[in-house]
Amino acid sequence: MNLNHPEHNESSGFAQLFRLVIYTAISFVACSIIVAAIYGLPALSALADAGPEHIGSMRIMLVISSVGLFLIPPLILALVEKRSINKFYNFERPKLAWIGMIIAIFVVSMPVLEWTAAINQKMILPEGLKWLENWMRLKEEETEAVTLMLLDMTSLLDFTVNILMIAIIPAVAEELMFRGAVQRSFGKIFSNPHVAIWLSAFIFSAIHIQFFGFLPRLLLGAAFGYIYFWSGNLWYAIFGHFLNNAYAVSAAWYMKKNNIPLSESEGMHFAWYGYVISFILSILAFLYFKKQTKK
Fold first, then answer.
1. What value does the mean pLDDT take over residues 14-21?
2. What sections of 94-213 are H helices per DSSP?
């Protein structure tokens, strides 16, 4: 895939990015109207304060948000550019061997990602910015409370719904937006594809508004970006994103079935050399994937 050279008669990267922002803003307003029409105006600001009895409403609102904000705008962009969605975003039949490599990358990188998450959680701002840190932690706690409610699964149906809502839909929608559309547009603006990948990953992480999980999500976004860039096929980035989210849902399901409180989850713990090994294996796995895609 060439991120730097536009197809014939295709709009510039700046034009595509501007249109994408406009489509997203319009879609946001439309989603807000739909949610308000279904649940009333208070529902727009009550997500963080909702209790377990509102779990169905929260799921519907999150699906509407994922589809409206991340899926529809990039699809409209492709249609406005009068391009086939498959060709515009490079949807090709994935190779089984490459899927296996994505799984390997995910497995070997899990420890180092856990380490970056732990480091990010310990972030402390200067004394003059304590007010900002307190606000960030408050938002983090609100998001965590909603996440714990969504992951509190009591049946196989709950698990299936969460896989669809947390793993499948966000993987497709967010990769289509941030790798397919945003990274693609930045690739047409900048002569350096690495700038496009990391800038897109930064926006991808920032848009989640989870400050104490910013670093691991930034690295994930960059990983998906390089996978897309090297393979020239968006399906692999989508699959990697799905693996990450599905693992979280599956881990929560396992804990629930074994009566382990989700609030007590502390992630994985390794000796320091375990994280070093994970880092080295992750780099080697990415380099191997790059080498195979070049063939």
1. 94
2. 96-121, 130-150, 156-162, 169-175, 184-189, 193-206
